């Protein structure tokens, strides 16, 4: 789960989800109001997961799996990804370059 790198505040699951889904680079801590960033490692993990999801869905298309199955499956991936974000991602107190 997310922990603030400035004050050590532990995010609740709900706060972490809200943070994971918000756009923008920095995420403000609800406790000390300082900005946290996702680590480069966790952003790479996120991209990897998105890539795998897209790959699986295109494989299904290749094997003539109907879209009525492939699309709900893609949504299931996205929802699973969203719900797993607070566990996949880690915070940093500074913005890390991706590569
Ligand atoms: Zn904090």
From TrEMBL:
Membrane-crossing segments per the record: 46-63, 69-89
Q: Which InterPro entries match?
A: CxxC_20_CxxC
Protein keywords = Membrane, Transmembrane, Transmembrane helix
- Which top-rank group of organisms is this from? Bacteria
Q: What is this protein called?
A: CXXC-20-CXXC protein
Organism of provenance: Allobacillus halotolerans
